[in-house]
Amino acid sequence: MAQFRDRDDAGRQLAEALARYSGQDAVILALPRGGVPVAARVAEALAAPLDLVLVRKIGLPAQPELAIGAVVDGDDPQTVRNESLIRATGTTEAVFAQVRDRECRENESRRHRYIGDRPRAPVAGRIAIVVDDGVATGATVRAALRAIRKQGPRELVLAVPVGAPDVIEDLRNETDTIVCLATPPDLGAIGYYYDSFDQVTDNAVIAILARHPANDGGQ
Q1: 147: closest CA among 59, 36, 50, 31?
Q2: Rounded Cα distance, 219 and 215, in Å
Q3: What is the three-class DSSP state of 131?
Q4: d(CA 134, CA 43)
Q5: Buried-most residue among 45, 58, 102, 171 (CB within 10 A)?
């Protein structure tokens, strides 16, 4: 039986677990696209601003779902490498750089599409709560956490409805706090834990951001 009806339900349950952060100058940072509807419910419950962390998996060319790294959008893009997989698959530096650069361009495209001239939520000195709809390998989340840490939050929180237990435990080194509602021993696919896990569209992301400003409820 699924743990969550859909991403809205997951967001509501996650918000309940994060209730202590209400009124604590938190900012909610979603990983698009799947993390955005989850994060929107958290932002609404905590009366906190909502913003995005634009991060892309660096997939093995022959197996795009196999993450050999991840890269976060920014003036100085934060890249996380999975060195063991890079070695095991014989991925050359040239191939890694080619895929990374392609994903950097996709991050830039998404920034223009989703954010445009929208103000960004300040992170320094605040409680930064990074939200996704689930964590399987942790590659993209790890990159996001490292990029946000560089912005100087007072506390860095990872909040997800479901995650692989070994990955969640490993990510404790990247965070101050982790809130994960379910850590099934044999995770499989994230979608198994939702009754409805339809793909989140670009238009849905844009509509959610329009309803949740990045500059309210904070400093």
Answers
A1: 31
A2: 8
A3: strand
A4: 17
A5: 58
- Burial readout 196-214 (b: 16 or more C-beta within 10 A, e: otherwise): ebeebeeebbeebbeebbb
- The backbone torsions φ and ψ at residue 151, rounded to the nearest 5 degrees and listed phi first, read -85, 0
Q: Do 59 and 139 form a contact (C-beta atoms < 8 A)?
A: no
pLDDT at position 216 is 54
**Rg for the chain, CA atoms, rounded:** 16
**How far from chain centre, in Å, is Cα 212?**
17
Q: Residue 2's pLDDT is what?
A: 65
> Other CB atoms closer than 10 Å to residue 169's CB: what's the count?
13
Q: What is the pLDDT of residues 90-148, one digit of tens each?
A: 999 999 999 999 999 999 999 999 999 999 999 999 999 999 999 988 889 999 999 99
* Runs of H (alpha helix) within 161-213: 165-171, 202-211
Q: Phi/psi class of residue 161: alpha, beta or left (left: φ > 0; alpha: ψ in -120 to 50)?
A: alpha
Exposure string over 36-56, b if 16+ CB within 10 A, otherwise e: bbbbbbbbbbbebbbbbbbbb
Which residues lie below 8 Å from residue 123, measured CB to CB, with a gap of 6+?
27, 29, 148, 151, 152, 153
For residues 83-93, give the mean pLDDT: 94
Task: Answer for the pair 60, 81: CB distance below 8 angstroms, yes or no.
Answer: no
* pTM for this model (two decimals): 0.92
- 169-181 pLDDT, tens digit per residue, is 999 999 999 999 9
